[in-house]
Amino acid sequence: MRLFQLLNMRGLAPHGYCLLWDPLLVWLHVVADAIIGLSYFSIPVVLAVFLARRRDVEFGWLIALFAVFITACGTTHFMSILVLWVPAYGIEGLIKALTAVASVLTAAAMWPLLPKLIALPSPRQLQQVNEALQLEATERARTEEQLRQSQKLDAIGQLTGGIAHDFNNILAIIVGNVDRAMRGIDNPDRALGALANAMEASQRAAGLTEQLLAFARKQPMEVQTHDLNIVVGELAKLMALTVGTQAELDLRLAEEALLVDVDRNQLEAALINLAVNARDAMPDGGRLTISTAAAGPGEVVVRVADTGTGMDAKTLERATEPFYTTKPVGRGTGLGLSQVYGFATQAGGRLDIASEPGEGTVVAITLRRRQHDQ
Ligand SMILES: Nc1ncnc2c1ncn2[C@@H]1O[C@H](COP(=O)(O)OP(=O)(O)OP(=O)(O)O)[C@@H](O)[C@H]1O
Ligand SMILES: [Mg+2]
Question: What tens digit of pLDDT does each residue of 296-306 get?
């Protein structure tokens, strides 16, 4: 009821009456209030566009509140123009009251935010942080490059050490056999046997050199059809020499021919790598079992099993990784099994390793079998 009375203009005089309708005075008020009101009304538009474009902006609600406040302020100025002619003082008062509420809310919201607003980073500060970050990124890239270089050098060092180690093993076989031949010269049969061993080891060394050169030049593989039994059978003696006299060799070749299309050098290198691993796993001797067999449809498998230390799960998981080794520097490069893996997969086959600590290791290379009539 009271509100209704507020809207009733009763016999009130318009504000222009107070100004005695002096045109200059009236129009001064009209123009000034209109300009202020329009300016105020334009500000929420600016804020709305800003908020729409920058949805990520913090304090968005404060900006919205400010827009309401400024709109109310603008409206009061248009009311001032209206009341010059129409004595709607009740409505004008109500709008002023609303403006008051909006202004109090805005002010009350702004004061506590002051520390946060002050702490907002300036574009200049942001740029400085950005520059620092970029500097750090460059620095990191350089460090990474240095690390890569040193890792490369490390790998080359390990590789060289590993090759020297392998050659030393072969040399030991040659020197040992030549020595035996020289001391047993009065027993021609023994001397010849020893010399034959020395010769075989020398040929192996030549093969190894060839492989290294092929690796260095990335020569294409020389894939030919071979009987797995013949390759394994001929290499078994060298494998036995590799594991040493303390270990027994058990050779179990399949009776049927097992034809495979492989690079013989690579296959031999893989078998030697497996023999070297078996030797390292059986420092106190044991049994090395080498077997060939037909497996699955159109597949053959060559297994190299030892009764050595075996591998724990972690080692087994990483064993074929290039450069993964548990052996001391100079003893292992960690390339043995990765070569075996590379050979098996390149030949279209696969590599399976079964091992448990204390239970020995079985490495199986499965290859595609070549049929006779192919
Ligand atoms: N027969 C095995 N018995 C026990 N552990 C083995 C056997 N074969 C491989 N391993 C483990 O797997 C690791 C990787 O073997 P891999 O042949 O790739 O490298 P390596 O023997 O350490 O060095 P490299 O062969 O290059 O001289 C070895 O260090 C060893 O821990
Ligand atoms: Mg090895």
Answer: 889 999 999 99
